[in-house]
Structures are given as structure tokens and as C-alpha cells.
Amino acid sequence: MYNYFMKLVIQIPAHNEQESILEVLKSIPKKIKGIDEIEIFVINDASEDKTSQIAKEFGVKVLDLAQKHGLASVFKIGAKHALSLKADILVNIDGDNQYCAYDIEKLISPIINNEADIVIGARPIDKIKTFSLFKKIMQRFGSFMVKIVSKIDIKDAASGFRAYSRNALLHLNIFNSFTYTIESIIQAKYKNLIIKNVDINVNPQENRKSKLFKNSFDYIFKQAKNLIRFFIIYRPCKFFNTIASILFSIGFILGLRFLYFYFTSSGQGHIQSLILCAIILTLSFICFMLAIVGDLFTINRKILEDIQFEQRQEKYKK
Predict the structure, then answer these.
(1) Element of type H or E holding 249
(2) For strand 89-92 and strand 118-122, is the pairing parallel, antiparallel, or unpaired?
(3) What is the enclosing helix (H) or strand (E) of 128?
């Protein structure tokens, strides 16, 4: 357990949340066991309503963004600001009042006890009445796919109610512009950061339209695209070698087919199989070379990330 002064920073990303931002601010605990100081700030993502005004009148700091950045960019801005505030723990809670803020103490407990670097609040998906059956299935399926890619048991991969240790903030790099939630999980795996799940509660809400995607199919498409992208970034060798192996197997079978008919039909016909075999084997070889290049890029990325980590430590030292 930590024995030194512990500072908790709570960031609230918000875009047009004038109906709920005050409830979120009021519900945040004033004192938490193991925490010596709590600082709250709202990241106003170019809201067109009174979100910023309400937060300022409540007495918290507001980072007003002139242009809409989106969830991932807002998180990165907040993470940098939290480090500049010398945060030991950063909690992200959305401004839509979906999550119960009194669960913050439960959320940060594993970090305080030095048991985790990142803690994800797992919602009771099956009990949320505003989620359709299709959405519940997709949430479960999405978490399952993230578990396969990251090899970490994640109950609610899309949850935005999370806690990050200082060490995690110094290590993470978010590239995606859509959402940071899945990418941070996959990065954690390859940076040896420990992730834990904590069951949390949610507040009753009306079935609001998401501000991140148009519909469920749009969400599925974007998340599937991101999962493939993350897999290529963090495991390029395995990704391209898998494709190379599949293509080689197909090409090899086509080659055997040509040879079979060549020797059983007096060498007549089936030249198409030979041509297709050559094309597919060439593609297989290209993918194999991409696997080697990708592995070299991975080594280079790790070196650069180590340098960046040291620079961040120096820049944001306590």
C-alpha cells in the first residue's frame, strides 16, 4: 500500500450535458479513504449549451475546447492535464450521469492497494433496461473479442468509468480518434500494465441517442475496424504471418491440383490453376515480408515508447 501523499484527479468529458453535468458534480464524493486531495475538472468538448457555465458556477475548473475533438482526443487532453496536476490516480467519469459516482472509491481501491494500474468499472449490462437485447448481445460480444485480442479478462470493454494510476498515464499512447477504451486495454497488455474489473452501478436513464455513433451497426463497424487496426499495430508479425499461412495453404493446394491433372491428363489443360497458384503464393510471400517489416517497426516503436516514458517522467515529475 502507498504511504505517501495521494492525489486523485477526476476528469469529466462533456459535450452538451447541461441536463446532467450538475448531478454528476454533486454526486462525486468529497472524501475518499486513502486519498489526501481530490481535484475535479470538466473537459467541455465544444458544447453548444450551458455545460461549461453550469460547471464553472459549481466551482470546478473547466477546460473549454473551441472545436469538438471527440472522446479519444478529449481523454488524451485530460490525461496530460492530470499529469500536470501531479495526479497519482486519474478517474474518468462521463458527463451524462450514466455511472454512479459513489463507486469511485471502489474503483480506485485496487490502485491504492497497488494491485492494478488500470481499473475498469463493469456495468450490469443485462440489467440495464434502456439497452435493447441486440445492444446487450453486442456489448458482450465486443468484450469477448477484446478479450481474445488482448488476452485479458474484460467484463465491459466499452465502459468509460475507469481509474488510471500515474504509471499507466505515463505509459499510454492513444492513436485512435474514435474511442480510447479498447485501445488502452490492448496497450496495457503489451506494456505489462495490470487491469482489474470492478462491478459498478449505473443511474436510471432515458434511452438517449449516442453521440459517438449513428446506430448499432455503425458502432460494430467502427469497433471491428479498430480491433483489426490495433491487432496490426501491436501484433503485426502474427497478423501478417497468419494471412501468409492461409494464402500459402491455398496456393499449395492449387499447385497440387495442377500437378495432379498435369500427370494424369498427359500435361494438358488446367493452366489456370498454375497461374492462380503463382499469384496466391506471391501474395503469401509479400505478407510474410510484411510480417518481418512489421516486427522491425514493433521493436522501433518499443524503443521510442521507452524514450517517451522517460521524457514524461522528467516533465511530470512530482
Answers:
(1) helix 236-264
(2) unpaired
(3) none
